[in-house]
């Protein structure tokens, strides 16, 4: 008698607590396991094994073949519960979180939530033309809902994926889905780009040639002014030569040669009209000021001295170096002012900014100037990844970063 009473009490307790034990696990977007991370040949996420191994294996095989044939990436997810979350919003968020689809957004998500008795198709931008909302809805109503009402989840999803695979692998659909990777289209575009590049290069080269000819013609009797004008456009020519080397390098070379020709062109003495001659680098030092001599020594400026052998008249011409770290000193105005040292006074940390100093010195007058500056505080980056579709083991992979505009359809059973 006592034994029967004990059994009755245990049975009553089991009946009272069974609903709590069998309560479906609720998933969030972040906790849904992405099987692609560990094995790129798997496409079905079924944590409660509601589909069965045979159906899961068959769906994985079909979706692997689809991906390899025309770049479509698909995921089938079956969850017992997502709580009170809206399944449509959940599907869009999960699609985006995993990044289903490649760079052309050929992605598809089929999400089933058991306790809501709902199934949703979510399509990427690139696949919407092949799987429009009406087709998705027809597949759900014709193949999924009848099987789900009988509790045959594996049968329903197998049939649906079979129809999806048939639709997206037709020649017309494959051509549309692969249009972004079509080699002939890319070749045609490349030819247009090359043609446009060559035409622009030729036009720019002709314009520069005409301009150089004009400068040379206008300054054939004023070589110093011609040199300075060509020097002003030297930087532009160097940039053009980088982007348009075919003719840009030729114009740059011609400009430099003409600059040197202008610099070496004989001068006529203004006093007596005699042709002057240019002194060499050792002889001209006697006619330079200490400041000018210093500028020549550090290479910021070069001076040419021309002398008339008849009346001993001299002309001095200044030629600034095209690329130099020196600038004009604010005190003595010599082209000898430069950054001598840049050092950290107090390093930055994650809780406070740091401080540094730049010290500028003039090589001629020795003026020294200290310029303090602030070093920004170090920002510690977060290592949390938003997407869950990357990483994994040796055969792992993940989806390729596709996006969805919310296209697709849904249904209830």
Description:
- The protein contains 11 helices and 12 strands.
- By secondary structure, the protein is of the alpha+beta class.
- The strands form 3 sheets. Strands 1-2-3-4-12 form a 5-stranded mixed beta sheet. A 4-stranded antiparallel beta sheet has the order 8-9-10-11.
- The longest helix is centred in the middle third of the chain and has 36 residues.
- About 8% of the residues have low confidence.
List keywords for this structure.
alpha+beta; 11 helices; about 425 residues; 4-stranded antiparallel β-sheet; 5-stranded mixed β-sheet; about 40% helix
Give a short overview:
With 413 residues, this protein is an alpha+beta fold. The chain is built from eleven helices and twelve strands.
Helix-strand makeup class:
alpha+beta
> Percent helix among the residues?
40-55%
Number of strands: 12
- Beta-strand percentage? 15-25%
How do the SSEs run, as a string of H and E? HEHEHEEHHHHHHHEHEEEEEEE
Evaluate the radius of gyration.
Answer: 39 Å
What does the overall shape look like?
Answer: elongated
The average pLDDT value, as a whole number, equals: 83
Distance between the termini: 48 Å
Number of helices: 11
Biggest sheet descriptor: 5 strands, mixed
Give the neighbour order of strands across the main sheet. 1-2-3-4-12
Uncertain runs are: 10-22, 181-187, 382-394
Strand and helix map with partners:
Layout: H1 2-21, E1 44-45, H2 53-70, E2 73-79, H3 87-98, E3 107-113, E4 118-124, H4 133-149, H5 153-168, H6 171-177, H7 183-218, H8 223-232, H9 234-243, H10 245-264, E5 277-278, H11 290-298, E6 301-307, E7 314-320, E8 327-328, E9 335-346, E10 354-362, E11 368-375, E12 404-412
Parallel strand pairs: 1-2, 2-3
Antiparallel strand pairs: 3-4, 4-12, 5-6, 6-7, 8-9, 9-10, 10-11
Helix pairs in contact: 2-5, 4-5, 7-10, 8-10, 9-10
């Amino acid at each position: 008698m006592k034994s029967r009473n004990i059994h009755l009490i245990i049975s009553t307790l089991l009946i009272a607590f069974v609903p709590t034990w069998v309560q479906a696990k609720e998933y969030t977007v972040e906790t849904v396991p992405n099987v692609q991370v560990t094995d790129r040949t798997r496409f079905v996420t079924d944590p409660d094994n509601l589909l069965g191994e045979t159906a899961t294996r068959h769906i994985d095989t079909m979706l692997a073949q689809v991906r390899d044939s025309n770049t479509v990436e698909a995921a089938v997810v079956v969850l017992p519960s997502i709580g009170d979350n809206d399944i449509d919003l959940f599907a869009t968020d999960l699609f985006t979180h995993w990044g289903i689809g490649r760079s052309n957004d050929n992605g598809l998500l089929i999400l089933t939530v058991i306790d809501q008795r709902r199934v949703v198709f979510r399509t990427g931008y690139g696949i919407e033309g092949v799987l429009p909302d009406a087709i998705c809805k027809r597949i759900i109503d014709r193949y999924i809902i009848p099987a789900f009402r009988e509790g045959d989840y594996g049968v329903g999803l197998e049939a649906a994926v079979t129809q999806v695979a048939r639709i997206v692998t037709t020649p017309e659909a494959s051509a549309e889905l692969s249009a972004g990777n079509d080699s002939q289209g890319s070749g045609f575009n490349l030819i247009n780009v090359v043609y446009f590049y060559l035409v622009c290069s030729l036009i720019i080269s002709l314009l520069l040639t005409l301009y150089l000819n004009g400068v040379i013609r206008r300054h054939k009797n004023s070589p110093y002014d011609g040199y300075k004008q060509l020097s002003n456009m030297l930087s532009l020519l160097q940039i053009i030569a980088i982007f348009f080397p075919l003719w840009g390098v030729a114009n740059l070379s011609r400009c430099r040669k003409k600059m040197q020709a202008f610099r070496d062109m004989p001068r006529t003495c203004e006093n007596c009209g005699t042709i002057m001659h240019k002194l060499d680098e050792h002889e001209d030092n006697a006619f330079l000021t200490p400041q000018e001599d210093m500028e020549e020594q550090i290479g910021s400026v070069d001076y040419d001295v021309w002398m008339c052998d008849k009346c001993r008249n001299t002309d001095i011409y200044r030629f600034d170096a095209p690329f130099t770290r020196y600038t004009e000193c604010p005190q003595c105005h010599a082209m000898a002012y430069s950054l001598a040292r840049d050092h950290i006074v107090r390093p930055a940390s994650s809780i406070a900014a740091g401080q540094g100093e730049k010290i500028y010195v003039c090589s001629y007058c020795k003026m020294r100037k200290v310029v303090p500056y602030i070093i920004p505080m170090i920002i510690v980056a977060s290592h949390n990844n938003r997407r869950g579709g990357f990483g994994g083991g040796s055969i792992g992979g993940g989806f390729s970063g596709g996006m969805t505009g919310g296209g697709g359809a849904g249904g209830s059973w």
